[in-house]
Design brief:
single chain, about 350 residues, mainly beta, Neuraminidase, 2 domains, five-stranded antiparallel sheet, 25 strands, about 45% strand
Length: about 350
């Protein structure tokens, strides 16, 4: 099946085998139990007859006693459900590599992106259950990244080094990155955005650039390798940098960056190397959504990463294979917008991913 990682296929095969084993074992257990019950019943009849017992609580006059006749059957909790993905709307047109931030009441602001011809666009779209136009960018931009800092929206790079600040309905230049930066990852901690890796137009980048409104951007750390098409999310004041492409090859490493010490360490690994994936944090966990393998196959997998243990597991399956999508957390769910489908063409879909309540 297209877009199914080996991890998904193994999980499905595992549950199918386990179900078959359970049915076979259940049949054998029922047969054995029947024999056991018959033996116990026969012994009980002999004992009751011999000792003149009243096992069902009958009184000496033959009236039944009050009260329960046996222990209450224990309640077995159901197996927890995985992530639920539902269709939530559509963009004004198919787009990939859109910049996105949480915006409004549980919605998202979507900026730029590449259209079906591969050209960058200047559209700004507001998603609050449905899409409405929210203006235009100063210039058409794809593969930029965005963040909300101090209540304002900032757009970083794309095919340039410019940092724009959304002021009302217009954009103002707020600074410049050290180099032109496309295909980067971004995460925020407090009122600082960290622009991670990317592509300058000629070379892959390994820098982590910090930007706090009112101060110039500065490179605060470097990754062990160059990374393009990676993704990132922050939990508990730490930034997790996931997958991406290094020297043209998808990676499976998850790095952890500590802004307090400006140090980068290897944290854990994905089950399968991938780039062009999206990620967002929800209820203290990080979810890695879709992506593309070294063969160019797009994935339907959603993986969960535990920031406390580094454990990585399959958490859900997208309705379709997807890469190059944008993902933000809003309204207790993850909003996934646009991207490229299994054919490589941009899509207009907007999905909402929710985690069941504990």
């Amino acid at each position: 099946m297209s877009g199914l990682d080996p991890e998904i296929q193994r999980a499905q095969e595992h549950y199918a085998r386990r179900g078959a084993r359970s049915r076979g074992n259940a049949g054998r257990r029922i047969a054995a139990l029947g024999v056991f019950v018959a033996i116990v019943a026969a012994v009980a009849i002999v004992v009751v007859t011999t000792l003149h017992l009243h096992p069902f609580g009958a009184t000496r006059h033959g009236h039944p006693a009050t009260g329960p006749t046996g222990p209450t059957k224990p309640v077995v909790p159901p197996r927890p459900a995985g992530l639920a993905t539902t269709s939530a709307g559509v963009l004004s047109a198919p787009l990939s590599r859109v910049a996105a931030v949480r915006y409004g009441t549980g919605g998202a602001l979507l900026l730029g992106g590449f259209d079906a011809t591969g050209a960058p666009t200047d559209a700004v779209q507001n998603f609050q259950g449905s899409i409405t136009s929210a203006g235009t960018l100063p210039t058409a931009t794809g593969s930029a990244v965005a963040a909300v800092l101090g209540g304002d929206v900032y757009l970083f790079g794309g095919e340039s080094s410019t940092i724009y600040q959304l002021s009302g309905t217009s954009f103002e230049i707020a600074g410049n990155l050290p180099a032109a930066t496309a295909d980067a990852a971004i995460a925020t901690v407090a009122d600082t955005a960290y622009v991670i890796g990317g592509y300058s137009g000629t070379t892959e980048l390994n820098t982590i650039v910090a930007f706090t409104p009112g101060s110039p951007p500065q490179t605060v750390a470097t990754l062990p390798v160059t990374l393009r098409y990676a993704t990132a999310a922050s939990v508990g004041g730490l930034v997790y940098v996931i997958g991406g492409e290094s020297a043209g090859v998808p990676a499976d490493t998850v790095y952890r960056f500590d802004p307090a010490t400006n140090t980068v360490t290897s944290f854990t690994k994905l089950p399968h190397a991938r780039d062009r994936e999206a990620a967002a944090a929800l209820r203290g966990r990080i979810y890695v959504i879709g992506g593309q393998s070294a063969s160019g196959t797009r994935s339907r997998a959603i993986y969960s990463i535990s920031p406390s243990t580094g454990a990585v597991g399959l958490a859900g399956i997208l309705p379709v294979a997807l890469a190059d999508a944008a993902a933000v957390t809003g309204g207790g769910a993850i909003i996934v917008a646009g991207g490229t489908g299994s054919s490589g063409a941009p899509v207009a879909s907007i999905y909402q991913i929710k985690r069941p309540s504990p």
